[in-house]
Amino acid sequence: MPGRGLGEGTKSCGRLAYRCLQELRQGLLVWQQEEPSEFDLAYADFLSLDISMLRLFETFLETAPQLTLVLAIMLQSGRAEYYQWFGICTSFLGISWALLDYHRALRTCLPSKPLLGLGSSVIYFLWNLLLLWPRVLAVALFSALFPSYVALHFLGLWLVLLLWVWLQGTDFMPDPSSEWLYRVTVATILYFSWFNVAEGHTLGRATIHFAFLLTDSILLVVTWMTHSSWLPSGIPLQLWLPVGCGCFFLGLALRLVYYRWLHPSCCWKPDPDQVDGARSLLSPEGYQLPQNRRMTRLAQNFFPKAKDEAASPVKGEVNGVL
Description:
Number of helices: 10
Helix content: 55-70%
Distance between the termini: 34 Å
Shape: globular
Number of strands: 0
Radius of gyration: 21 Å
């Protein structure tokens, strides 16, 4: 698991750094203009959306595997410095923040969907954080007890998830090789958290994925309990398991609360003066503005009730790349 994650995560980190430099240059260009043009503002948004997606990929390809490995080593050795616990906590916060930032970026791609408010963002951040912690803890416990078998466990689940992604018929990248790289990345994300890749209603697929990860996490913890009742650090499972279970149920409750009452679609009414929620892709001068078709496609998959259709591709643009 760490080897694959580090290899692909390094490539994603390089692309992320390149996009960040582009965004910085474009931001300075917009800042220097007294009245920024519509094209420059749209291109800045284009780059910002790409950065959000690449940050999410880098997080789950590099940060999440490293976090699991570090936590497993600390549990196995029974020694941890305060700065190590601080690093673990900030890593959890960073992963949850990347999920929130990606979700907010998807919202900006669909004018028919309102942006997340402060309260909705806080709840969304918390339930991702609380559900991520038990999953990483279960994998880390298994890794601390069976360090030689965790790679086989990851490979087995990863192949099942990759098959599931392939059966959903993803069509995201412009060529087959890039499409398989995308599927490999998505399968790695699904090992830790939910990520929608196909059109249609997401409730059924999200429920299946949630039940799959929950069953796997329970089996990992049960395997630990049948071989040891104490952590290497001397802390009994009677203390760790209630904490993990409490985080799981609290995160599940917050997730249900979010989608039942705080999701913007639950309380938002469209503006009658807005035609189908669509915004114009043309500047006042009449030329076409840049549109990030990658993120728009993902947003339409994630929000199946979106009213606006994908815009026609810009000349010279292939799947969102100018």
